[in-house]
Amino acid sequence: MKLYAEWFSKECGLECSENLSRTDRFVLYKTGKVIWVNHGMGSPSLSILLAEMLKIMHHAKAEDVKFIRVGTSGGVGVEPGTVVITTGAMNGELTDKYVQWINGKKVERDTWLDEDLRKELIAVAAEKKIPVEAGITLCADDFYEGQMRLDGFFCEYKADDKFDFLNKIYEKGVRNFEMECTCFASMTYRAGVKAAIVCVAMLNRMEGDQVNIEHDQYIEYEERPFRVVTALIRRQLGY
Fold it and tell me: Got a GO cellular component term for this one (predicted)?
């Protein structure tokens, strides 16, 4: 995250702050009107970070705030290197809800991402000739079994089960896996914040479970969401 913040500050001629986080759990850098933070792995970690960032925005009296999550993901029926811009978030039950347990009770919250922001990001990716696809993102609760991988320590299903599942979710519009989207899409929607999710597919899960590309190619793929998002930020803020 520090690398991206410094890269953006250099491109835009802005000062990059030092790490403003007071803990070792997260990092936070500020470049002009843009804040760069990491959120860890999975919805529990993300939920903490989002709650803190929403409080910061509230106390700063920030207006017209936008949150954009960038990262890597496992593609479903898309070529490696494709940037997937999320149209909707799906949980492991294949519904568009973020599930919480509060006071011993199951609470299901709606998930929603801003359509206009998504369209703007898709247009920017197309302009920069970065392969892009819009689709649903499935939020798994873990990296292995929840994503039907065959290479984990535990695996109580067969390859046929995996491909049946992948084909099923593909038909429902799913184009990638990660582990945060329902939380992100629910909390931002609940807070009234426009939000988007931009993740590159590092592999096509229809073809395997492990990323098998050269290091330089990995880095180039990993930078694609950043390039799309920063281009839009610069356009909107005039940097």
Answer: cytosol
